Amino acid sequence: MLQQILEQKKEEITKLETCYSLKRDRKKTSLYKAIRASEASPALIAEVKKASPSKGTIKEHYVPAEIAAEYEQGGAAAISVLTDQRFFQGHIADLVAVKQMVSLPVLRKDFIIDKIQVLESAHIGADAILLIAAAMTPQKLHELYRFAHEHDLECLVEVHSVEELQAVLNEFTPELIGINNRDLRTFKTDVNHTAAIASHIPEGILTVSESGIKDTEDLHFLRSHSIDAILVGETLMRASSPAEGIRMLYGS
Ligand SMILES: O=P(O)(O)OC[C@@H](O)[C@@H](O)c1c[nH]c2ccccc12
User: Fold this and answer.
1) Which ipTM score applies to this complex?
2) 28-250: which CATH number, 3.20.20.70, 3.90.550.10, 3.30.70.1230, 3.40.50.800?
3) Atom of ligand 1 nearest to the CA of 111
4) Which residues does the UniProt record annotate as the domain Indole-3-glycerol phosphate synthase (predicted)?
């Protein structure tokens, strides 16, 4: 038994070593700049996602680094990686693997509510993290935002409603705001949600529309509302290949 456990530990240590060496050589890249520099309109943040609480397993053959490499080739501006284990079947090792594979900025998609998770994110090589307004007070959000920036991490601040947005803006002005089209009670998505909230976002802040983006029609709609970027997971993961998914979305 001990032998078996030690074998397992060796595997875990190899992963840890990858984390450490990665931290030494990793090149930081900016999500903000990548969105601004993208030729695609809106820019694409392509998500690597195995499963979700509402849909169960989305992709059986799940090799995050391979998927991310195809996203990069396909013209994505950045990669988002789900690292939550319990509900999304992700892992921090997925982010480590993706960061090693691509030169695009990598967003850590998780439920970050504590400074220790911010430190962990910096440590595993994330360039940016998601902060969900619904998960904490605006003061706490601001505190984590500042802490993340001190550790060289950008933040995508996610809101679901105009009320949440106003509460955040009363406290501070984030660089990047994500509007989640998914209603967290019903799990239904609607891109009109983005249009309704985006008009309340001041100039200068980059706006990202998240969740439930399915086709070229959605994309054109969001473009007509001057959305800077879209965050797409499921549609790309269900396409015959990630690259094909991007072609289908952008209609090229
Ligand atoms: O797979 P979709 O519908 O394209 O959605 C991607 C992304 O927006 C979604 O995964 C997401 C948005 N905010 C989150 C917060 C936590 C976990 C996941 C998410």
Assistant:
1) 0.98
2) 3.20.20.70
3) 16
4) 2-248
Instruction: Give the distance (Å) from ligand 1 centre to CA of residue 188.
Output: 12
pLDDT tens for 184-236 read 788 899 999 999 999 999 999 999 999 999 999 999 999 999 999 999 999 99
Q: Would you kindly state where each structural domain of the chain is located, as residue ranges?
A: 28-250
pLDDT tens digit string along 118-176? 999 999 999 999 999 999 999 999 999 999 999 999 999 999 999 999 999 999 999 99
- The 3 state secondary structure assigned to the chain is CHHHHHHHHHHHHHHHHHHHHHHHHCCCCCHHHHHHHCCCCCEEEEEECCEECCCEECCCCCCHHHHHHHHHHCCCCEEEEECCCCCCCCCHHHHHHHHHHCCCCEEEECCCCCHHHHHHHHHHCCCEEEEEHHHCCHHHHHHHHHHHHHCCCEEEEEECCHHHHHHHHHHCCCCEEEEECECCCCCCECCHHHHHHHCCCCCCCEEEEECCCCCHHHHHHHHHCCCCEEEECHHHHHCCCHHHHHHHHHCC
